[in-house]
Amino acid sequence: MIEIDGTWLRLADITKVAAGGTRVTLAPSAVERMAASQRSARATARARPVYGRSTGVGANRSVTLDPTDTGMDLHGLNLLRSHAVDAGRALDRETVRAMLVIRLSQLSAGASGINPAIAEALVEMLNRDALPEVREFGGIGTADLPALAGTALTLLGERPTMGGGIIPEALDGWGTEDALPFISSSALTVAQAVLGHQKLAVLVENLTLVSALSFTAMSGNPEAFSPEVARASDSPAVGEMAATLHGLVAGTGVAARIQDPYCLRTLPQVLGAVTEELASLELLLNRLVVAGHENPMVFGSETDGTNGVAHHGLFQMTTLARRIDALHLALGTACATNLRRIDLLCDPAFTGLNRFLAADDSGQSGVMMLEYVAAAAAGLVRANAQPVSLQTVVLSLGAEEDASFASLAASRLDSTVQALATMTAVELVCSARTLRMQGRKTSEFSNPLLRRTLETGFTLPAASQDRDLRPDVDMALKLVRLPALGRHP
């Protein structure tokens, strides 16, 4: 059971809920915070116009709503129904669960003025796994309006769940005061970013270990990772990566060259840049999953008369778009060195073995085609690295004249994860095969993490005769997706 309190939510807990089987509950403090926010919002709406409560939205912001209860409730339903349209493929259950738990956390921050009963209904939706169907096209980085409006219709029983049924105990109604606050969030975009970040963090750790195996297989010169180099680096992340690599490859053999190719020598810069961007994205996501960014933002207390609202633009996910763009650029750069290491592992000049790590020199192709597989995956990572933060659009009769397209950046992360995992898996197959054919033993490795990584690599098929290598890649893919590859036998 994970308690949602609106002040802190670990990214790892989001992934647990997203995976299914983990229940959530609202902290009493979160319920009270939402109730106080609702009282504050109502008090403010009695004293001044409030966007989405007493007015229409978008280009209709100048339209005053019918103040009667019936008219207000109807407007809320109309808002949800009109904003629920999306298109494209249906997203997976993991992503939808992550969206819901993040939205719960954001609402619990107490800046929306929403009825706490709606948050309680979200808890039930998650715990019963009666999820809304959410499709890929609709958000543009200025709040995921279609995804959340569709979620609201599912809570109301107007839309079926992903399983095709109707949610048990559907909400009886939805007031105007709750409609905009519920959908005014980028919870889906943030969810995709969180899931991508967490998977990439595991992959990059394993890529570091596999890179160290390749370095060892090609008898790299560890001077490039020395403490002197680490101290002189232009970034703490680069210095830390140099120290990590130095510890991994220490004592693994005699350097074959005075100076290595870039794909070995610049590993601290390449991998350090990726870990640096991962850390920056993590800091931002930690804020966003508990951020009350609903527009308008409700603040203060009805009790002491400090209540009010602030109309703002924090829903514009420009910073998130830039952070993901920067991470994609770092990953796109890393692809070049990854491919080059795979290429050099096929070169007798660097391994002392047959071309393409073939069993003999009679024309067998060995792992030749694995280069093509890795290159195809690298092409996708590089395509995803094209920045989205330069995009924009003008919508709603000119009332909304910009968009961050953070939603596009976040949605790309999943395919980047799959492609990077493929490249890492190919390098693991090649590096482990090289070390096995060189007759290296795991007992030669003094670093326990690198030793366990090689032990894991040696669980891959040993036969070097030409054969179907798809099973090898499939097995390696499972291995590189495991947290801490080097800690698994």
Automatic annotation (TrEMBL):
Keywords: Lyase. This is Histidine ammonia-lyase HutH. It comes from Pseudarthrobacter sulfonivorans. Pfam families: Lyase_aromatic. The keyword Transmembrane helix does not apply. GO terms for molecular function: ammonia-lyase activity. PANTHER family: HISTIDINE AMMONIA-LYASE. It comes from the Bacteria.
